[in-house]
Fold these 4 entries.
Entry 1:
Amino acid sequence: MKMAVIFGMNQIVSHGFGIFLFAALVPLMRESIALSHWHLAAIGALTQLAYLAGAMLLGLLGHRLGTARLSLLTGSLATSLLFTMSQLQDPLYITLALTCLAASAAISWGTIVEIISRHARPEQRSTYLSAVSSGTAWGYGLNGLLILLVIPSLGWQQGWQIAGMMGLLVVCLTWYLLNGLKKPLTAEAEPLESVIPASKLLSTILGEQTAFFACLICFLVGFATMPFSNWLNTYLDQLALPAALGGYTWTTVGLTGMVAGVLTGKLADRKGHGVALLVIFGGFALGLAAFIYDPGQFALLAGVGYGLMYFPMWGVLAGWIGRHYSATATMQINGICMVTFGMGGSLGNLLAGYIRETTGSLEAVFITLMADAVLLVILALWILSVSARRRPMQSAA
């Protein structure tokens, strides 16, 4: 599990700190920096675009640059930028730094997918990938600890510096890990690297079932999860429920995500990726259904479903793709999956805003998200049925 732990720490730095720490610290930063609502809106839009651009570049060019080198470069860049954030006072430079952190995070996850797909044993691959992808949930938790224990006495600048120090530690551990992985690589690498040419990547996504459905799943996950996270607290406030309920719900999301990664990854490796996807998508759909029935009573259950699904989904899906493609092709397809996730999230947010504007209520938004979750369950059932049909054929062969 050494590989999973170290790459999970990479995920804490790249996503937990690089993407989500700013949102946690921005109320405190605004006390000393002139960050207007326009600045925050621009940061939100540009970081999302940068994440999509990083994912697209990885899918098109990542195989030419070398994933080990990219992993160290993105880790070093993120560490430098985290330290830099503690000294920045100009909103323009803050926006630029956060934009670079977002692009770096997308590339970092893609390189991790390729390295684990290449080096981990097949029977442990999904466990490792899901555990690593849940590192983002651990980042949520560490951000909360920084706000509770460090920031009140030392200031928000120290929060960025602590994140940078952890980044420096993680870069050193990653270098040590990758240096050790080079030794067996010559003996165990695939004899011919299966790279999807950039000119054929789109046709592969549209023409091959596994690649197409992986991207479709990510689109639907983005369509559901991004509006859920953006509108949950607003909906609870609209219903005049206690403000603390939103805080408890997001705490539940983080705690569930911390433990869901390893458990769902093991389930995927032992029982199949279709089973794991059915469990996490089914849990998300049930949580949403209960939340729609009684938001006040079942908000925490919706948080459990969200945490169960969102964090480990990336690892389980990458493991499923890796069963059908080489490590490098898996990285390329995963990069396009991140792009479709962003597209789905953008469409979901636009539709949610339209529904809110036309109906004056958010209940219809969450009903729409539940319908999306049902589609994810149907896709998981399809993957499960296809896997069940292939297993007897493989046994006969």
Entry 2:
Amino acid sequence: MLQQISISITDYIVAGRKGETYQRLLSGSRMADLDAIFANTTGVRRHELNLVQNTSTNGHENRDVILNKTLEGKVYQCQNHGNSSNCDSLENSVENNQENLVDLAWIPLKYYKPADGPHMLRLRNGTMVRYTNFSYFPFTTNSSYLLNNEQLCRVKGELTLLIIVHTAVPHFHHRQVLRETWANKELLKNKQMRIMFMLGRPTNESIQVLLVNESQQYKDLVQGDFIDDYHNLTHKGVLGFRWITENCRNAKFILKIDDDVYVNIFRVLEELLPIYKKHPDYIICPIAKDAKISRNNSKWAISSDYFPDFQKYPVSYCLGPFVLIPGKLIPNMFETAKRTPYFWIDDVFLFGIIAELIQGTTLWPLQIIFQHETKSLACFNGKKPCKQMMAFAWKDDSMHTYWNATLVQYKKLVKKYANPRFH
């Protein structure tokens, strides 16, 4: 069985080799094993990772020793199963075992530089961010999927748009309504569109049975091995980056939403996607700028361990209900997330810090007014076409109300983009 264990390990930098970072990870090892292996090595940076302990059926541990080399923006791996003989010497593993080094990076990290010290992160604009509670990204970057639909993006031709939905486990109705309305995979006539729901693990096993059935029926769920909770949304987001990197590199654009969000998809196609012809690295979203850091007992309160030198977040970031991203950026965002100090508020981490660390990426402000559902319903039920690009759908029937109104109010765009049965 797989069991999550959390232990402290160390990054090691070889003296005299500027710009080269060597990292040792052990999977399925006791703390005593780590102490013995690293006893004679000088550690210069410490962080905590959630490692996976893999115990075979006969009770013996399967031990993999992995050496990662990061050099000039590429990641290489030296791996030996069962023993560490070829990876014992950090220098020799690189100099003498080139045959064991495999390029793991799909896209070189041309712009990202690791943290400058044990608790510092240098942003692209030169700002130094100090962490007093420092940890790199935990287990969602390499743990197994509980549910995975690898075939979802395998379409004929180009996949124009992949909609990534951060959904809560019990929101079965939310997911079904999205499938039936504006995110229907059969909606577009000359373009391919798919929807994928990201979720974590329920605490109730009977709910998991329902999720397995839902996944088998619709083949659009991806589930990570973490509790589905508000404080785990960053895990959910990075797992989405990972899944796209592994399974959906053919998606030209990624639209990340929450499961209570309605989007006028026709306006996205007509007004937003053409922007990328001149600005291919834009991330389009409503932006929070100079957002105040909450230290009180609010939903978004954080301790003084995070950003202790700031009263406002040092980065602008996207507001998560609507984020449009070029698909080509996702692998770079995933690789950068793995090397960036973890932060649990997902919008700040995923679409603020990570976006800031990738040079050339720009947050393009989408003028969206977040207003109460009642006002949005009034807008869509009005005589004039509602100009809202998105709206919240908290009531059971709101999504259908928005959708039916859009089909009437935007007949020309519907005819241009939608298959005839939706006219």
Entry 3:
Amino acid sequence: MTTFQFPKSFRWIALLALLPLTGCEDPQREVKLQWREDEVNKKEAAVIQREMALAKEKQVMEGNRLDLLAKEKSVASLQKQLEEEVEKTKRVRREVEIRQLRGPIPQISADRVIVIDAASDEIMFEKNPDKRGAIASTTKLLTALLVVEAGELDKIVTVEESDTQCSPVRIGLKAGEQYTRRQLLTAMLVKSSNDIAQALARDNAGSVEAFAAKMNEKCLALGLQDSHYVNPHGLPARNGDEPFSTARDLSAIAKACDVQPAIREIVKLQSYSFKWPNGRVTELSNTNRVLRSAGYCDGMKTGYTDAAGYCLVASGERNGKRRIVVVLNDTEGGVWRDAQALLDWALKA
């Protein structure tokens, strides 16, 4: 095998190429390069310092921002507390003024009572408002509400034999007689006739039992948990399933009636001329005596049974203020006195 060899002159050239070239560089250029490197390093260090200073400044600013937010939150909380205190002071001052205007709460003999502002639902006075018990013919307010909500008050109702089979008070309806719903509704609310209540219930729901179920459904719709109805008139049940309600629940039903123009127009009547099918007219005097003794009273409904005692739901208005009073389990003489005194007291302010 033949080996190729470079000439000696070529080998010296290669060795020279491997020698350092630094000795051939310009010294001034080296100095300039070093100066530039130093300047770059200085600027890098300055940038790093500035970045560190900026980060620290940002940290301080963030701390100041959080401190400011905390202070703003504290100021807002203090302002809210101040506003609440101002409102509380106004409310207390107003309550004091109202108490001074109304004077002391009347002394009453009724066992279950509530007085409400019909517009705001404010409870102005209460006594055993959630105590369950019989409510007698004030039951007919819920009967009236369902009848009015069904509409067609000028529709004819034909009396059936079952409508006439009830305890007094009765107006004396006879099977086959025909009246409008409005006639029957008016007579029921003015004179509290139980046979009329049964006729309206049967006309509305097909039977007294079906109507009672609708009454209880309405109570649930109104959010009432302490009421149970078994008939449209409030008389004691024959099967032991006794009806009951409370002053509070009854005030809610009264308020629902109070916004019905048809009911408002009826319950304020001091009397009503009931016309029989044969043309005879019977003058019915409203059982609510407070309508005649207090000009500010404009409704609503009376009631009495042994279990309920003497009852009255009374409504009234004066100087733009509207109130509803519920008085249950009172005495024969006390019911009128208590209801009128409470209504007058509540309407003073």
Entry 4:
Amino acid sequence: MIRKYITEKRSWLLLLAVLQLIIIFVAYVDAAIPLLPVLYIVLLNVLLCLAFVFLRYSKETRFYRSLEAWDQTYDLHAVIEPGSPLERIVHEAVIAQTDRYKRESSANYQLLESEKDELLSWIHEVKTPLTAMQLMIERLPDETLQRQLMYEWLRIHHLLDQQLHQKRIPFMRNDLFIENVSLEPVLNKEIRALKSWCISKGIGFDVELEVEEVLTDGKWLAFMLRQLLTNAVKYSAASDILIRSGEKDGHTVLTIEDSGQGIDPRDLPRIYDKGFTSSRGRQDGAATGMGLYLTRQVAEPLLISIHAASVPGEGSIFTLTFPRENDFQRITGM
């Protein structure tokens, strides 16, 4: 800050220096003026100016130092009151700009909330004809056509479900209900939802649960499993998907293993990035790059860690490690 202060006052300091040099020059040129007393006076002037600058530095930079330390939030209490007319101009400009940003932020938030509510309402409205469509598809006599339509119906349903939960994720901490959740009914429900797709691809499930219950939120856990199982089915063919639960280092661990295409090692660090589709996903054309991203977003508030391991051409293993009971003390509002 002192360097900035000197830079700000350099014109005044240069003027004082030039005046002292002029006094010395006049005393040097005019023999009638004794040079030594003049040098003494100039030295006193320089010392006095330095002392004045030193004393004024603390007062004149107090406001700007508080402004520099301000974290640029809407709270201006950290910025001290201005002590000069120029500082008052800066302070008033900051207040005016902050008030404008507050108004714009509030308006944008209300607009986003309105759009979110409209979208959620639309998704709920669309679910009604989708349910009716599912019943109509199930009554079709042509099994081949039924499987094809059910697959497309499932894709639409899955995308709507992703969109619905994506809008809810920012507020999911207000919606958490942590309890002991039985894994078997949750898994069975998600597997049944994929039944027609799995039958058409010749995919089965091998479920072995050594640990039958986990401490988590059942609704959000079901969403995570839905994304992982959908990916496992999407990139597998004529094989079994293995689902295992157990205990490791005091944590419950759930693994989902498929024998599908696998993930390129170069893609593994990025599979949870929003919108990222691997090279295989681009070839498939159906990948959205949102499933694993949303899974990670949901896992963080639930304190569930996700680990992926994969060998291209052999399959992938996704491991969910659930927290201990005491870990949930970190979740506010529980």
